[in-house]
Amino acid sequence: MIPIQLSTNNNIYMAKAAMNSASQTNTSANTTQNENGFGKALNNAVNEVNQLQQDAQTNIENIGSGQSRDIHKAMLSMHKADLGLKLSVEVRNKAVDAYQEIMRMSI
C-alpha cells in the first residue's frame, strides 16, 4: 500500500501567524469593526480548511486501521481537503500579488 500524505499544514500555521500579527497592529478604536471584518472571515476560512484536513486524516487512519471500510467517504474527504488547501493557497498568492503591485506603484 502506498502511503498517502495530505498537504502540509505549514501554510495554515503561516496564515494564522500572519493574521495574529496583523490583528495586533489594529487600534482599539477598530475593535467593533474587526469582530466582523476581513480578519475574522480569514480566520474562519483557515480554521475550516484545517478541519477538512483533520477529517480527511481521521478517515484515512480509520481505513488503514480497519475501523472503517468506507473508502468512498475517505476519498471525498481527501479531495475536499485538497481543494480547500488549493483555494486558500491561490487566495494567498493573489493577495501577495496585489501587495507587490501596490509596492511597485510610485507615489
UniProtKB/TrEMBL annotation:
Protein name stated in the entry: Flagellar hook-basal body complex protein FliE
Location within or outside the cell: Bacterial flagellum basal body
Entry GO CC: bacterial-type flagellum basal body
A Pfam family of this chain: FliE
Organism superkingdom: Bacteria
Origin organism lineage: Bacteria, Pseudomonadati, Planctomycetota, Candidatus Uabimicrobiia, Candidatus Uabimicrobiales
Predominant subcellular localization, coarse grouping: other
Molecular function as annotated in GO: cytoskeletal motor activity; structural molecule activity
Family under the similarity heading: Belongs to the FliE family.
Organism, scientific name: Uabimicrobium amorphum
Stored InterPro entries: FliE
Keyword Cell membrane: no
GO biological process, alphabetically ordered: bacterial-type flagellum-dependent cell motility
Keywords from the named record: Bacterial flagellum, Cell projection, Cilium, Flagellum
